Amino acid sequence: MGRVSQAQARENRERVVRTASRLFREQGTHISVADLMKASGLTHGGFYKQFASKDALIDEATAHAFGELAQNRAAALEQGAGRRAAAQRALIDAYLSVEHRDNPAEGCPTAALAHDMAREPGADGAHRVYTQGVGDFAEWLATEDEDGIARLCTMLGALVLARATKDSPLSEEILAAARAALTDEG
Which of 2, 8, 35, 174 has its CA at a distance of 20 to 30 angstroms from the CA of residue 102? Predict the structure, then answer.
């Protein structure tokens, strides 16, 4: 087999980062490099041609996931005709939905990676990216009357509890209660 072009190497790297971002949110950062590369459709041996270490990949995959979250916020703002309150409402509704609860791989890195960030001593870069992403998300959720951190904590806590109680009626009740608390439906 011949050498891959620089363009192909870039595409392979991007594929690994996208795959890792999804799998880390779904399964946690403990997934093996071999399994991650297999899911990317690449060989295990190619990993170290692309990344200095698994921690370096965790850093990049975390940044990628928060980039997706920022894109979702921008899309919500666009759908809300530029009105921040409408965009926040749309995002809260999507965040506290059964679909989001059931699809962590495509969901918010704030909830999906919290456990790993708290326990990953070697992921300094990822921890910084995570902390910045949480701060940015909380800032975006802030209103004139409500603190963004409190709103984010409500959303995050509700999502984590809803995922943990997924096979019971309590799960959807948790999502509905948090939605009501955050959108004045109650």
Answer: 35
CB count within 10 Å of CB 117 equals 19
Closest by CA to 58, choosing from 17, 95, 98, is: 17
pLDDT tens digits, 5-15 = 888 889 989 99
Q: Which residues contact 25 (CB under 8 A, 6 or more apart)?
A: 65, 104, 105, 106, 107, 109, 112, 113
Helices (H), 31-123: 33-40, 47-50, 54-79, 84-95, 98-102, 109-119
pLDDT tier, 122 (very low <50, low <70, confident <90, very high otherwise): low
Question: At 49, is the secondary structure helix, strand, or coil?
Answer: helix
Q: What is the dihedral of CA 129, 53, 19, 62, to 10 degrees?
A: -10
